[in-house]
């Protein structure tokens, strides 16, 4: 029987090995004596290329935002546009020329000074290179540098969105020396507060950023090292947070109760990071006549139990809404949220009136829609319509949305700026309006917005537009998604829900 | 070189040979009847049927649809009214989804297994039946299929399949088909040259009908086994892909449920548990069912017994009761050995056998196959199979009781005082070691010699046993030497220690006629030289006449007549002896029983 | 022998070309989707067409494949269409992670399986039933549940081991061991469940062979019979089982990599497939086929060493 003991001993041996290994446990980012301070946080998607013409927004921005300076910056607390690499900016009267004045104390990480020529070169390249940034320059006719620190951008017509692009990927300044070289995409050279430590970085898994102490804005970046870890699985991210391997992570609502001890962890809620809505693609009813009928679109809005979805499916971490504009922006109108109370009976009557009862719509089923499909199917059934979810692999999600094969698609869209949101949701060529639907009222309102260079003056037009599109029910807004960041070890969020992804969101408590 | 990568197919190939053999040996009881007699098959099959029925009856069991949500029931705990197992993160009834997931699993298994069967069997029939060129093509294609990383392919092909799990399972079925292909191809190749196919061909049946009629009958057993395993793989893969989020989320499946439960693990751990348990139950049942089916078709694999425990005996051996005077070299008294029959009842194959061998005697033990000769020899050596039980009697060697001794207790006798020469020389040498290595092991034990001296001794023995190039034979592996040479090697190993008793079990049966005579000559010479006694088990009176001085005739587990050879040949007293002697002439040329079944002799009902 | 290896490798190369050709043909149908995914919200028919032209995806498939093949033969597998990283070095790096996980797992699996299987087959009775129960439990126990349980207890509660992440052995051997301990445990438990049963079955067969009986009559000791003879002969089929287990672990590592957030081959392949990152999928496929070919070849050669009949001359 001694043999039994021997073989049974195996798990014990493994456990013992684990114990030995455990003796040398290490923690996440902690302060060291000489003022070194490390930040480790997790994101779900790995940054793509660092080629300035291929930068993507969203959580990918954490990395490139640190490596490149953007011309402008959006304040994380107030949402105001602030100077950054550009000290000042000015439009001419009709908004066809933008003049930017650059700081004169910026250098690239290879030591070269940053001049207006670098900005011009980056912008011209992005405009001429097919990629993620290209169409942001669609109205730009010329970019020039009258002197070392002045950049002049000429437009074919006023582009109300453009100024907000300058704190995003269209506003980066890259070193023109890297342009002819493939390595620029993987070993970027920028003028940002951090450089990418390519030796310590494991692409797709861990990105290590080292602070440039000589950066003009070094004081705004308290962390000497920032490590971005790609943890696709939220449970894995939570485990890493609890094990002290990371200092901060965005935790989905289902997992929040599990985070534990309030004294160890700081929870920061960002009320509205994105809007979740059922996008009506065929607003003119070209291929799906039912959707061209305002009554049907309104009926769908009545069918959605937004409160139920927020409490049931978002774990209460969300805000029901009837409109798509950012609740922290200027356009958002609280009163509009009573437009479509949950009233399937009324919806059913509207559908009957319109004579479309019994119609079934195909909608792409993507990783975004998974959780909500069942609830939406029920909602459609409750007003006498139906949904058939068609599985679409992630790499086809974008083309399915644009294909014209579907009358509707489920979307979650992050905020950029109110202007951009208008164009995105209702403008021709806007992402949410791929069939380029418009009508005289929209034409008029968007035309006015596009012609008004002074944002303050345009505000009433924005509000009228919001009212109009809610009444027309061009989209079926469901809820604003809240995000909860959980931080520990003295790391706190310095952000009021600005929807910007930058390491400046993180700071040290006190 | 074996390039067989697929364990499904190797086991099934083993099963097939078993099936062919069993087809001749076991009286034809329909397979389904045999399945119904196997408790493991019945329980697992029953479990699967109950689960499938539950799935099929889902609409009648629960009031909900699989994707019907109730936002107020989100994450409802088990036991909530209307939600016996609770509801998931979208407020869908977990019980309902479990039941519908069963249907998804069933469909996956059916599509996956059916595709593999159709593709694999068709290609196997074609590749096995037609010429080598066709086979080379099919072989190449299936090697291609096998090398492709399966799950990767399924994920890559998602744009093609549109994420529909049924298409995915169709492709997976193709990936599984090499296993079936190999089973069918091997069986067809084996069966093709058998007489009845040739006969059928002569009688004018078309190729296709030949394949259909004869081959399918032979392959169905192994294929049914493989199907159970393939169904299990298909369900596992479908669940795995659904867990990863490949495919439609609308389709309820265990993988999707596990994934959803995993997201909610901390809120409602049981959500993760139910689908995991049911999935585990289904796949485990399929694996156990496959094993049970294999046992039914192939004959069940015996339970292992402790190696070295010695043979089983129900006799209380009274070691004290030594016979008066000088004991015989070997004294077997009233020996009875029984085996369980397929129904589990003990059946005696040796029934009260008594036999004495004096020092230096050569005794022939003669009888038809199945009469218990080999079992008697094994019992004396202490190497009866685990199923056999000695129910009474005693075996004494130089007065010492051997029954009830363990291997360790027998070791001082084995290879020293008692030696053994088996019937089938090739299978009795370890194929993995050089002949010399094995003999050195014998010599070291028997004579206590060390390395170089043992080797010298082995070479001398080989030479003595008539091997012309001992050095070469020493280095050869068993498969590199002829049967006659192998038998000389075995004789050499047996006589290394100058044993007092050599038990030779049909030592010449498996050999060519000319070699037979040489081996008998060798045994006779050695006997004269070493003065050992020989118990020669044989069915052949010619051999007895050639070498023995005494003979015992066995019939149905008993000795019917003993005597000196000359006397017995001259005036056989028992009718059975007379009958055997009368058939000598026929037997010399045609042997009735196949030589390979020596180890099973007497087991068959 | 050398000729044999060369012939096998040649067959592997032809196979690789065929497999990649099929893969490429299948993938080429969805290049416009890839372009749309890269462009994200800025995708319009015009920008997609421009990007396709820029990347050369609008050329005939045959030309694109030939170009890829010429590059691949020279060791240049192109670069990811998303993050522009060269595929060749990244695949190798990811392969290294997964192999540094699987190889120890396989070795431990083999060790435990052999001991357990031999023990069950040579002792029978209670030992045998115990081994079968262990196999059954390993089969039923969901790997995911086990993984999560280990993380919660060993990493989160006790802080003995890292919950996520990977350290290369070249950087820090101890940290590497710590990072692979839990994934290896999960892989080993699943592996032992299937492999121990196989070893047991082979050993039972082997122990009933004629030569074992003959060796017993020659006075061979129990340990010689079990370990020197039966195990050696069971080793050859067990080796085949081992190579299958290796390939299975290689494919099954994906889920483990996701749970423990390890930057391995599985998650690399999975992400590339989900995004339609054609050069990465091609690179991943090539190396998977090469690896499987190499493992099979190594198995056959090792088989030859164990089993004289299968020896190549």
Automatic annotation (TrEMBL), chain A:
<dbReference type="InterPro" id="IPR039424">
    <property type="entry name" value="SBP_5"/>
</dbReference>
<dbReference type="GO" id="GO:0042597">
    <property type="term" value="C:periplasmic space"/>
</dbReference>
<dbReference type="GO" id="GO:0015833">
    <property type="term" value="P:peptide transport"/>
</dbReference>
<dbReference type="GO" id="GO:0043190">
    <property type="term" value="C:ATP-binding cassette (ABC) transporter complex"/>
</dbReference>
<feature type="signal peptide">
    <location>
        <begin position="1"/>
        <end position="25"/>
    </location>
</feature>
<dbReference type="GO" id="GO:1904680">
    <property type="term" value="F:peptide transmembrane transporter activity"/>
</dbReference>
<keyword id="KW-0732">Signal</keyword>
<dbReference type="InterPro" id="IPR000914">
    <property type="entry name" value="SBP_5_dom"/>
</dbReference>
<feature type="domain" description="Solute-binding protein family 5">
    <location>
        <begin position="80"/>
        <end position="413"/>
    </location>
</feature>
<dbReference type="Pfam" id="PF00496">
    <property type="entry name" value="SBP_bac_5"/>
</dbReference>
<dbReference type="InterPro" id="IPR030678">
    <property type="entry name" value="Peptide/Ni-bd"/>
</dbReference>
<protein>
    <submittedName>
        <fullName>Peptide/nickel transport system substrate-binding protein</fullName>
    </submittedName>
</protein>
UniProtKB/TrEMBL annotation, chain B:
<keyword id="KW-0472">Membrane</keyword>
<keyword id="KW-1003">Cell membrane</keyword>
<dbReference type="InterPro" id="IPR025966">
    <property type="entry name" value="OppC_N"/>
</dbReference>
<dbReference type="InterPro" id="IPR003593">
    <property type="entry name" value="AAA+_ATPase"/>
</dbReference>
<dbReference type="Pfam" id="PF00528">
    <property type="entry name" value="BPD_transp_1"/>
</dbReference>
<dbReference type="Pfam" id="PF00005">
    <property type="entry name" value="ABC_tran"/>
</dbReference>
<feature type="transmembrane region" description="Helical">
    <location>
        <begin position="107"/>
        <end position="130"/>
    </location>
</feature>
<keyword id="KW-0813">Transport</keyword>
<feature type="transmembrane region" description="Helical">
    <location>
        <begin position="215"/>
        <end position="235"/>
    </location>
</feature>
<keyword id="KW-0812">Transmembrane</keyword>
<feature type="domain" description="ABC transmembrane type-1">
    <location>
        <begin position="102"/>
        <end position="290"/>
    </location>
</feature>
<keyword id="KW-0547">Nucleotide-binding</keyword>
<feature type="transmembrane region" description="Helical">
    <location>
        <begin position="167"/>
        <end position="184"/>
    </location>
</feature>
<feature type="transmembrane region" description="Helical">
    <location>
        <begin position="272"/>
        <end position="293"/>
    </location>
</feature>
<dbReference type="GO" id="GO:0005886">
    <property type="term" value="C:plasma membrane"/>
</dbReference>
From TrEMBL, chain C:
<keyword id="KW-0813">Transport</keyword>
<comment type="similarity">
    <text>Belongs to the binding-protein-dependent transport system permease family.</text>
</comment>
<feature type="transmembrane region" description="Helical">
    <location>
        <begin position="180"/>
        <end position="199"/>
    </location>
</feature>
<dbReference type="Pfam" id="PF19300">
    <property type="entry name" value="BPD_transp_1_N"/>
</dbReference>
<dbReference type="GO" id="GO:0005886">
    <property type="term" value="C:plasma membrane"/>
</dbReference>
<protein>
    <submittedName>
        <fullName>Peptide/nickel transport system permease protein</fullName>
    </submittedName>
</protein>
<keyword id="KW-1003">Cell membrane</keyword>
<dbReference type="InterPro" id="IPR000515">
    <property type="entry name" value="MetI-like"/>
</dbReference>
<keyword id="KW-0472">Membrane</keyword>
<dbReference type="Pfam" id="PF00528">
    <property type="entry name" value="BPD_transp_1"/>
</dbReference>
<keyword id="KW-1133">Transmembrane helix</keyword>
<feature type="transmembrane region" description="Helical">
    <location>
        <begin position="133"/>
        <end position="160"/>
    </location>
</feature>
<dbReference type="InterPro" id="IPR045621">
    <property type="entry name" value="BPD_transp_1_N"/>
</dbReference>
<feature type="transmembrane region" description="Helical">
    <location>
        <begin position="280"/>
        <end position="299"/>
    </location>
</feature>
<feature type="domain" description="ABC transmembrane type-1">
    <location>
        <begin position="95"/>
        <end position="299"/>
    </location>
</feature>
